[in-house]
# Entry
Amino acid sequence: MGEHRTDRLLRELVHDPYKSKRKLAEPSVCRDCGVVYLDGRWTSKPAPADAQETTCPACRRTQDQVPAGFLTLSGEFLAQHRDEITGLIHNIEARERAAHPLKRIMGLEEDDGKLVVTFTDPHLARTVGDAIGHAYGGEVDFDYQKDEYLLRVNWSR
# Structure
């Protein structure tokens, strides 16, 4: 029997407080970024003329400055390959956002030799952390915040 790995799973015990508790009117369009709520999901399709305006969960998180994921990168390797690593981060975000328009980078900040990336979705933080670990090696740690819809990822090399 295989070992049960709970560190690889994002436990959905806590509901994302930025997801609407009620069904949105369809079609709806985010007044800030233009994503469209249609057929029960957010898409990048063009907004129909009769779409009602709203604010999508990703824009609300960004406005409130409440990330769902943090990725902290550190080490000498980061200093030497910063542009390459940030390029990878942006490429992954673009790929994920094409399929899931609420998965976004909220910000990238330098802090005492570390790069801190914030995300609107914990799964995106996980995907980026895994990709950086796979591409560049180093140590990757995942810290799921119990009772919160939040993931902290730390990578160093």
In short: The mean pLDDT is 91. Strands lie at 28-30, 36-38, 41-43, 52-54, 69-74, 105-111, 114-119, 139-144, 151-156.
